[in-house]
Amino acid sequence: MARPGAAPKIDDDELDSLERDLLGRAHGRVLEIGAGWGENFGAFPLDIEWIGLEPDGDRLAELSQRAREWGHTTPPLAAVAGHIPLPDASIDTVVASYVLCTVPDIAAALAEVERVLVPGGRVLFVDHVIAPAGTLVRGLQHVATPFTTRLFHGCHWDRDPEPALSARFEAADVRTYSVPGTPFRVPTLLFDGRPRAGSSLFTG
Ligand SMILES: C[S@@+](CC[C@H](N)C(=O)[O-])C[C@H]1O[C@@H](n2cnc3c(N)ncnc32)[C@H](O)[C@@H]1O
Q1: Nearest to 132 by CA among 94, 158, 102, 97
Q2: Closest atom of ligand 1 relative to the 35 alpha carbon
């Protein structure tokens, strides 16, 4: 029996559809952090101006090629989320899928995200997150994380980025679903938000 307040269970196709809906809300000048091999191009509206950011050299090469195939002319940035080489208030939407599990410092990355966003900009994040306290899955995530960080390029299975996201961004649509993982179901967070009104960056 489901626990009260437990995340709704969905399958891979439903997750795919929810991700496409979330990323489809990107508009204007879009910065995609940790863009990987360019898996998200099909989800974005065709009229965006896409700027990718990716620190891994091998992925960057494939990302550059796929970006060109999708008609995006700006070469992706070889950079990390903690130091985004873009001016203040220069981006309409920041997108990241399955990246906050990996960045070394979530708070530093989100500070940079807020810095580059225009006032009224938008953030769209999706990531796997830690299961609720007291669950077997949460215990397994803690046990597995020392291995996943080594085996999967710094990926933490036991992170909860939602408090850091909600502290910095006004949540417009936040949802968590239980999705099939390997080897157990994991909660996945979808976060759509905007910089908080009165953010120190925009109050002069
Ligand atoms: C699990 S992959 C996700 C790739 C892609 N976003 C996707 O959904 O298919 C995580 C990506 O984050 C990148 N990454 C790792 N550390 C990063 C950092 N500090 N800043 C930005 N991206 C980072 C990795 O190189 C990798 O491409």
Answers
A1: 158
A2: 6
Q: What is the dihedral of CA 56, 59, 65, 71, to 10 degrees?
A: -80
Residue nearest to atom 17 of ligand 1 (CA): 103
Q: 134: which 2 tokens?
A: 């007291």
Which tokens is 11 given?
Answer: 């399958």
Q: For residue range 88-109, what is the model confidence (pLDDT) as tens digits?
A: 999 999 999 999 999 999 999 9
Find the 84 Cα to ligand 1 centroid distance in Å.
14
Strand bridging mode 169-179 / 29-33: unpaired
pLDDT at 162: 97
Closest to 100 (Cα-Cα) out of 165, 22, 148, 170: 165
Q: Which residues contact 101 (CB under 8 A, 6 or more apart)?
A: 127, 128, 155, 156, 157, 159, 161
Q: Which residues lie across from 171 on neighbouring strands?
A: 193
Question: Residue 3, Cβ neighbours under 10 Å: how many?
Answer: 9
Ligand 1 mutation target, pool 99, 105, 128, 152, most atoms within 8 A of CB: 99
Which pLDDT score is estimated for 202? 46
Q: Ligand 1: distance of its center to the CA of 198 in Å?
A: 30
Q: How far is the CA of 31 from the centre of ligand 1 (A)?
A: 13
Domains, the chain: 12-195 (3.40.50.150)
Q: How far is the CA of 120 from the centre of ligand 1 (A)?
A: 25
